[in-house]
Design brief:
This protein is an alpha+beta fold. It has helices at residues 4-11, 25-28, 49-62, 116-125, 141-144, 154-157, 185-191, 228-244, 271-284, 298-308, 345-355, 400-403, 406-427, 450-455, 459-469, and strands at residues 17-18, 42-44, 67-70, 89-92, 99-102, 107-111, 129-130, 164-170, 176-179, 201-208, 210-211, 217-224, 249-256, 259-266, 290-295, 330-339, 363-369, 390-399. It has three domains: 4-92, 2-Layer Sandwich (Uridine Diphospho-n-acetylenolpyruvylglucosamine Reductase, domain 2), CATH 3.30.43; 99-212, Uridine Diphospho-n-acetylenolpyruvylglucosamine Reductase, domain 3 (2-Layer Sandwich); 217-444, Vanillyl-alcohol Oxidase, Chain A, domain 3 (3-Layer(aba) Sandwich), CATH 3.40.462.
Length: 484
């Protein structure tokens, strides 16, 4: 049998490829998270749908048993490189990143390797347009749109997944297909919420944009994290405001750096509307000396929220967003879940006792406020949880550049993990399952069913669709949809 390497070298001689013996391999497989450093069989970077098709034909002919698809490269468990135990050929979509904006129709058509931050810049600059995306904007559209995409404008404008109008895909048999409401509708349903890399290679996506808010602002309101009684009263006030706020308010409650923080974006259309909401915030929230409102244009609000307030504060602006490699290597563990109902008094008291023990830095809990009455019904897409009040997330994070050596970084990260695991168990009874966009193998701990957590009642239908389009399970990793 001819090797895959020989076949692609012969049939696609100009396409970038990298194998373990190549000097380019370390860079081709580089990723930002120390905890997710898989070593795949090889990496190929197609530049067109035709090249993707030929890659799959070569893989079939060479007997390759696992293909992984890499878009932004932000899988916390390394699924886009095949996973820790994988033996994958990686189809890296990094070169397929063209962006086309239709200003009149308010749509964008992008390549499968486009980063959300780059799309944001183009949509804004070519028509004052936007779409809701996840909080971190250095991730890939092709990956995030299959998971959900929840961020600082989700309460006003919904999720990224619900903006998908059409996709072009290459399937496991090498065929190129259109996927939308009329063409392969079962596959269109499946790719909207089932996580990444289960059904084929998304080479192009068309998404619905909307006009960006004309007078937005970011808000940052902080309270000292001191004693449980103060935490309880403040948290209750923040939750009550979030649950009853106008749709233009996009709130997040954050426990981080010795503060109970309330931050987010105002999607307002006029200065008067914005000023009224600011006054409402001041009136209804507990008083604090740390009350900061930052009016700005839409793109600046995204830069601040998407870069400065996440784990990636090193990009100077959105035009410089690019695929992360190892230039800011860090230890990062993440856990997340949907919370259907408002938090009870019992929960808030339990959380308070743990929150005031939070390490001074490196461990974070965040609660993104959602609109439980907005969006399509739960069976409209493969997203498991709809109608939730909150999307909870928590993470540990230590940068190598802060510690100087990997051993210290790992030791510090492991200690932080103990704190967030305890925090997660406090939240767990109140959640309706994990968020597949923040993939976490530990969702299977304590005798739990990881696939039920991420896919729930949708799993049988997803399995049937997987069996139809990829019966040999060519596209797989540890969290992909199984064939049976």
């Amino acid at each position: 049998m001819v090797s895959f390497k020989d076949l692609v070298h012969d049939r696609l001689p100009s396409m970038p490829v990298s194998f373990p013996e190549d000097a380019t391999f370390d860079d081709a497989t580089a990723t930002w998270n120390y905890l997710a450093q898989p070593r795949p069989v090889g990496v190929v970077a197609p530049r067109s749908t035709a090249e993707v098709q030929e890659i799959i034909r070569c893989a079939r002919e060479a007997g390759v048993t696992q293909l992984a698809i890499r878009s932004g490269g932000h899988s916390f468990e390394g699924g886009s490189l095949g996973g820790r135990d994988g033996r994958a050929v990686v189809i890296d979509m990094v070169a397929m990143n063209d962006i086309g904006i239709d200003r009149e129709g308010q749509t964008a058509t992008v390549g499968g390797g486009t980063l959300t931050g780059n799309l944001m810049v183009q949509a804004w600059e070519q028509g004052g347009l936007m779409l809701p995306t996840g909080e971190c904007i250095a991730v890939g559209v092709g990956g995030q749109i299959q998971c959900g995409g929840y961020g600082h404008y989700s309460r006003t404008y919904g999720t990224l997944t619900d903006r998908l109008l059409r996709a072009e895909m290459v399937l496991a048999d090498g065929s190129a297909v259109v996927v939308d409401e009329r063409h392969n509708p079962d596959l269109f349903w499946a790719i909207r919420g089932s996580g990444t890399g289960s059904f084929g290679v998304i080479t192009s996506l068309t998404v619905q944009l909307n006009t960006a808010p004309a007078a937005p602002a970011n808000f940052f309101i902080k309270y000292p994290l001191t004693d449980t009684a103060t935490f309880v009263s403040t948290f209750k006030a923040l939750q009550d405001y979030s649950l009853h706020a106008p749709p233009a308010v996009n709130p997040m409650i954050v426990i981080w750096r010795e503060r109970l923080q309330f931050l987010g974006s105002l999607a307002t259309e006029t200065d008067a509307e914005r000023d009224a909401l600011v006054a409402d915030l001041r009136e209804k929230l507990p008083p604090t000396d740390e009350f900061d409102i930052q009016p700005a244009d839409f793109l600046e609000t995204m830069r601040v929220q998407g870069l400065e307030d996440t784990s990636a504060p090193f990009y100077p602006d959105l035009s410089d967003v690019r695929r992360e490699r190892r230039e800011h290597l860090r230890y990062m563990k993440i856990k997340a879940g949907f919370v259907p109902e408002p938090f009870t008094d019992k929960f808030i008291h339990t959380l308070a006792a743990h929150a005031i023990t939070q390490p001074a830095d490196g461990a974070r809990i965040q609660l993104l406020g959602l609109d439980p009455n907005a969006g399509p019904p739960v069976d409209a897409t493969a997203i498991k949880s709809r109608g939730c009040s909150w999307l909870m997330g928590m993470a540990s994070g230590v940068f190598l550049e802060e510690t100087g050596d990997t051993a210290t970084m790992v030791e510090m990260g492991a200690k932080l993990d103990e704190w967030i695991r305890t925090a997660y168990e406090i939240f767990y009874p109140y959640t309706s399952g994990g968020y597949i966009g923040d993939d976490d193998y530990e969702e299977a701990d304590h005798g739990r069913d990881m696939f039920d957590s991420y896919y729930g009642v949708h799993l049988p239908r997803l399995k049937a669709i997987k069996h139809k389009y990829d019966p040999d399970n060519l596209f797989h990793h540890k969290l992909s949809i199984p064939v049976d």
